[in-house]
């Protein structure tokens, strides 16, 4: 990380490395509990595995959801494809580029 921070060619801020550093700091500041992680993973796997059961029961081949929807499909072993359809809703959070403030996500943006 020290090299990336000090070398302008690495474009540290442009590639969101401050976010990476914040995540690294958070990991070191919070106590990690393997049993809590395993419980969370087990739950996500269980939920994800229910997707094929739902599709079979409803005689459905695919789930279509807005691109901003978080799903557990890939966790359950189901393929997941994200295709931007429509635009973000009016109450969607705004996300800007850390390097230049350019708006990346927000209400009304496709």
Q: Into which percentage range does the β-strand content fall?
A: under 5%
Assembly type of the chains comes to single chain
Question: What's the helical proportion of residues?
Answer: 25-40%
Radius of gyration: 19 Å
- Structural class assignment: mainly alpha
Strand count, sense and barrel status of the largest sheet are: 2 strands, antiparallel
Whole-number average pLDDT? 77
Number of strands: 2
Spatial arrangement of strands, main beta sheet: 1-2
Shape call: flat
Order of helices and strands: HHHEE
Terminal residue distance: 34 Å
Low-confidence stretches: none
Count of alpha and pi helical runs: 3
Topology diagram in text:
Blueprint: H1 2-6, H2 17-29, H3 34-57, E1 95-96, E2 103-105
Antiparallel strand pairs: 1-2
Descriptive key words:
110 residues, two-stranded antiparallel ribbon
Descriptive overview:
By secondary structure, the chain is mostly helical. It has a domain at 31-105. Helices cover 38% and strands 5% of the residues. The chain has three helices and two strands; from the N terminus they run H-H-H-E-E. The protein has helices spanning 2-6, 17-29, 34-57; strands at 95-96, 103-105.
Summarize this, please?
By secondary structure, the chain is mainly α. The protein is 38% helix and 5% strand.
